[in-house]
Amino acid sequence: MATFVLVHGSWCGGWAWDRLRPLLESAGHTVLTPTLTGLAERHELSSPDVGLGVHAREIAELLESEGVRDAILVGHSYGGMVITGAAALAADRVGQVVYADAFAPVTGESAFTILPWLRQAFADLPGPAEWEVAPLDPGALGADDEAAAWLSGRLTPMPRFTHEEPLGPGSEEVLAARPVTYVHCADQAFFTEVAVTAEKRGFRVVALPGVTHIGLLTSPDGFAQELLKLT
């Protein structure tokens, strides 16, 4: 049986996978859904210097502390930045990498350089501190009323540095030696160019028609089927 490590995106926490996790566990797989420092129930740890490097290291440390081998690393949205950094730090514990409508960076790229419009969008979302970013309206991410209600009560501000800090070295070599899948939510264009670039890099690209960016979390059945095909 496989071990899935599911890494959430911006403003979320491990809770973001609550509707997907049982679908994988019912097939007999182990599923880890950590919450990144500074978000959700760990929001009290938020600070100006919490960024991509901190998050990548803690996922790498999780793989080691849990004794995980051949992990299937899955990152949604910002989580794609995190799993890329973690793969470089814990290459011997990673079997496959899955980008779930996510950033798929190379060395030196940040979330802001991949999607430049995000910088201004974040500037328009002032948080409780000048270095934090308040959550985006879930409706802008493709959430219907039910999904928006489920999400909005759980989202927390996050450190801006997570999207400013560039990816460190080493990930390209790791990804080149492992199966990499990019799952693109075809009903929204946020990551269309990223998916095109992923295909050029040799990643296997799967399009989910009719699924919005947030649909992977709120209606995960189709995404779960794609993940189970990897085991």
Walkthrough of the structure:
The protein has 231 residues and is an alpha/beta fold. 35% of the residues lie in helices and 16% in strands. The strands form two sheets. A six-stranded parallel sheet has the order 2-1-3-4-7-8, with helices on both faces. Strands 5-6 form a two-stranded antiparallel ribbon. The longest helix is centred in the first third of the chain and has 14 residues. The model has no long low-confidence stretch (mean pLDDT 95).
Task: Please give the structural blueprint.
Blueprint (H helix, E strand, L loop, with lengths): L2 E5 L13 H5 L4 E3 L19 H14 L5 E6 L2 H11 L4 E7 L10 H4 L2 H7 L8 E2 L11 H8 L5 E2 L1 H4 L6 H6 L3 E6 L6 H9 L3 E5 L6 H4 L2 H8 L3
Parallel strand pairs: 1-2, 1-3, 3-4, 4-7, 7-8
Antiparallel strand pairs: 5-6
Helix pairs in contact: 2-3
Which spans have pLDDT < 50 for at least 5 consecutive residues? none
Distance between the termini: 7 Å
Secondary structural class:
alpha/beta
Strand order of the largest sheet: 2-1-3-4-7-8
The overall average pLDDT, rounded, is 95
State the share of residues found in helices, binned by percent: 25-40%
Q: Give the overall silhouette.
A: globular
Q: How many separate helices?
A: 11
The major sheet is characterized as: 6 strands, parallel
Number of strands: 8
Helix-strand string: EHEHEHEHHEHEHHEHEHH
Which percent band covers the strand fraction?
Answer: 15-25%
Radius of gyration: 16 Å
